[in-house]
Design goal:
It comes from cf. Thesea sp. AR250. It is a single chain. By secondary structure, this protein is of the alpha+beta class. It has 2 domains: 123 residues, DNA repair protein MutS, domain I (MutS, DNA mismatch repair protein, domain I), CATH 3.40.1170; 103 residues, Nucleotidyltransferase, domain 5. The protein contains 6 helices and 13 strands. Strands 4-2-1-5-6 form a 5-stranded mixed beta sheet, with helices on both faces. Strands 9-8-7-10-12 form a 5-stranded mixed beta sheet, with no helix packed on it. It is elongated. The two termini are 30 Å apart.
């Protein structure tokens, strides 16, 4: 139960591209309950670029445990009478698998057993959070987070930040001058994108502007059939937080 309670909390903190590994003795395990409702929605790139009224339904989302098992070439098991699905690997191989998972855009949350010296059920807590732009154990690449704020007056607030060395750049740019930013972004290894927006012009207009911007900055997949998982879409009169990966 603790595993799935933490998973729900971590989805709201870090988005849907989260893998949660829990320590069970000398292994880290990933769990999944089939037939449970999911906030994960997947669309093709081509579907996202048409008006919402013309879109089909979301594509069938592949559960994270199946994606990870395929990526790491591991087997999924279903022990006991419960429908719970599990996969895992020895704790000593975490570092090896981390680089593979982060390269594919996953955020990895590690839940370790606590040494309490007391008898009874094992106590566990989140010990590490790794993301594509924040892996302090691998300093070979200086990765950045790109934050984009859409205001209601066609002004963009841009922030580039690296957790590796604390370097950050912040500046405003008008929508009309947005192409000038593309030349700057070429110099940075952007691994994560966070978008915060006010939907003053209506949600459909806002979503289209976001995609137009990311395409112009070469931060959107060019393949029409690329599958994109979307955390949420703008609602009228409400700010919008959007996260996606492909």
């Amino acid at each position: 139960m603790q595993y799935f309670n933490l998973a729900k909390e971590n989805y709201s903190k870090y988005g849907l591209s989260v893998i949660q590994l829990i320590q069970i003795g000398k292994f880290y395990e990933l769990w999944h309950e089939p037939y449970t409702s999911s906030r994960q929605q997947a669309y093709s790139q081509a579907e996202l670029l048409v008006e919402r009224s013309m879109r089909g339904g979301p594509l069938e989302g592949t559960p994270p445990i199946e994606q990870v098992a395929s990526l790491l070439n591991m087997r999924i098991i279903s022990p006991g009478k419960r429908s719970l699905l599990q996969m895992g690997f020895p704790t000593y191989s975490l570092t090896t698998h981390l680089s593979t998972l982060l390269d594919k855009g996953w955020t990895v949350i590690v839940i370790d057993e606590l040494v309490t010296g007391k008898s009874g059920p094992k106590q566990r807590a989140v010990s590490q959070v790794y993301s594509p732009s924040c892996n302090l154990e691998d300093r070979s690449v200086l990765a950045y987070v790109l934050s984009i704020y859409f205001s209601q007056d066609d002004l963009l607030g841009i922030t580039l930040f690296s957790a590796m060395n604390g370097h950050s750049i912040m500046f405003p740019v008008s929508w009309r001058d947005r192409d000038k930013v593309a030349r700057l972004l070429i110099s940075y290894r952007i691994r994560e994108i966070v978008i915060w927006a006010n939907s003053g012009g209506g949600p459909e207009i806002l979503i289209n502007k976001i995609y137009t911007l990311l395409i112009g900055w070469n931060l959107f997949p060019p393949e029409p059939n690329a599958k994109i998982e979307v955390m949420g879409e703008a609602l009228p009169h409400l700010p919008c937080y959007m996260s996606y990966r492909y």
